[in-house]
Amino acid sequence: MSRLTDLIANAKGKDPQLGADLEREFRALSSRLSFGLNFERHNPEAVELPRRPVRRGDKVHVLPPRGSTAKGDQRLWLVKAIHKTSKMAELTLLGAAGGRATQ
Predict the structure, then answer these.
(1) Is 76 exposed, middle or buried (0-12, 13-18, 19+ CB in 10 A)?
(2) Taking the alpha carbons of 7, 9, 15, 19 in that order, is the dihedral positive or negative?
């Protein structure tokens, strides 16, 4: 916060009206914080949703065949496209340039 208050003070020195407007808006926003803490809203990077249908743009893990005791692919893939007729999806490994198709 001190950096922001320093910038507002600098703005007041160059343009008093702009500085006053910025300070008023800053105080209005800072008064909305609950318990004096600043919590930022965010979306989780990855959440397991086992029964949700896969859609283009989803991040997925490739699981082993049902009934198998093998450990699945632990890498994270991005679904680029879904081919409904063949029940296949085009996947791209996150952090890599290559793609792969899987069921």
Answers:
(1) middle
(2) positive
Residue with tokens 């959440």: 47
Q: Which residues pair with 101 in a beta bridge?
A: 90
The H-or-E segment that residue 20 falls in is helix 16-30
What band does 83 get if pLDDT is binned at 50, 70 and 90? very high
Find, among 75, 84, 76, the residue nearest to 55 by Cα.
Answer: 84
- What tens digit of pLDDT does each residue of 23-67 get? 998 888 877 655 556 666 677 666 778 788 899 999 888 888 889
Mean pLDDT of 96-102: 57
Q: What is the rounded end-to-end Cα distance, in angstroms, of the chain? A: 50
Angle at alpha carbon of residue 78, lines to 74 and 83, rounded to 5°: 115
Kindly state the DSSP code that residue 88 receives in the 8-state scheme: E
The three-state secondary structure class of 81 is strand
